[in-house]
Amino acid sequence: MTRRSLLPVFLWFVLAIPPARAATMPDMLGRPVAVPDGPLRLVALAPSLTEIVFALGRGDWLVGVTEFCDYPPAARSKPRIGGSMTPDLERVVQVRPDVVLATAEGNPRDKVAELTRLGIPVFAVKPDGYAGVLASVRTLGHLLRAEAEAAALSQEMERRAAAIRRAVGGRPRPRVLYLVWADPLIAAGPSTFIHDLIGMAGGENVVRERAVPYPRLSWEEVLASAPEVILVATQMGGGDRPLNGGSWNAWQSIPAVRSGRILSIPGDTIHRPGPRVVDGLERLARAIHPEAFLPGGAR
Q1: By residue range, what is the domain housing residue 284?
Q2: Are 254 and 226 in contact (CB under 8 A)?
Q3: 14-31, pLDDT tens digit by residue?
Q4: The pTM of the whole model exceeds 0.90
């Protein structure tokens, strides 16, 4: 039998198990989702969701995560169900989840729709902007019956964010280009939560394109936007480091190139709309306003 032909067999076993008594709860898209009582068997279709679940003390409820879920370290031992964009539906069915957690923008709609057709409840979050990240934490806290933990976590995130805003407040706001990918040049646009983070970190996003969240730019467009700081996300760990030389040297008319303010910055805490996004905000603020974090520099 092929893997595709096995899917109905797995589904039959899943549906043959009587469900626990379920309540109906709206997700962040306003869709009613049936949620059983008691501890839940969860599948998370994005690293940010896995991080939120662990931060709320429900890591033991996870029975499936994506191949990119690497934080906290305990997440690495969870069963893998494929990628965020390419979840293996057969594996999802095999782990018999009560609820699959998804993101409105980070998971393919056709895959989510297929899970729904298979009778598996899918609960989606929609972290629009920084406020949406906090709302996702609180919403999942309600879903996972961890309201107190979610309230404490979101309050701590807000406290840290407020301290960062105070540190950079009143300072000039340099023009910032944030590249989620360097080749080709793909930037964070104004409809992304990264745009919010840039503003909170004391910068001004040079990208104005709203048609797509992450537009692809030409070198000429970068030149015309005249960024004073260029931040290039890397998927590698480690700290921030200068990223001068190479192809950048040919563009000395770009202010950030002339001043040597091109920085490679780890993207995991910035790109994942979860609890560590405040760590990412601090990274951005230190890159944009290093003077604000010197001894005596904070206001």
Answers
A1: 172-293
A2: yes
A3: 444 445 567 899 999 999
A4: no
